[in-house]
Amino acid sequence: MCLWLAGLDNRQSALFGAIWTFKTVVDHCGYDLPYNPCNIVCPDSVLFHDLHHQTWGMKYNFSVYGAFWDRVMGTAWSPHDSKAQAKYQKGKAVAESKVAEARGQNSLAELNTGESTGVSI
């Protein structure tokens, strides 16, 4: 209905849907791709929306297509903010320690069963 109100025909609607589906996928892929053509129209990139998916950032950056309403409602938080960077680093350190811990446990389990050496015990 919104596309009809905007005066878009079927081809224009399909093109609009394809472009914004691409943008949504790129914003959720977790990588800030260089030369992303969507950043020309909507400069709020992957980093902006990725902050929303962090456990500590779930109340911020709801926008995918533009941060107008996030700015109006006070839910916009820059990923370049020093507080955000500190929280990213803390979360990254916790995740890396959990991965290292899990790898250590898996290595011990493999050694106990002999799977790592190919020798069955």
Order of helices and strands: HHHHHH
Give the oligomeric state. Answer: single chain
Q: How big is the Rg?
A: 22 Å
Q: Structural class, judged by helices and strands?
A: mainly alpha
Round the mean pLDDT to the nearest integer and report it: 75
Number of strands: 0
Strand content: under 5%
Quick overview of this protein structure:
It is built from six helices and no strands. The chain is mainly alpha-helical and 121 residues long.
What key attributes describe this structure?
0% strand
Write up what this structure looks like.
With 121 residues, the chain is an all-alpha fold. The protein has six helices and no strands. The chain has helices spanning 2-5, 10-28, 38-41, 46-52, 68-73, 82-113.
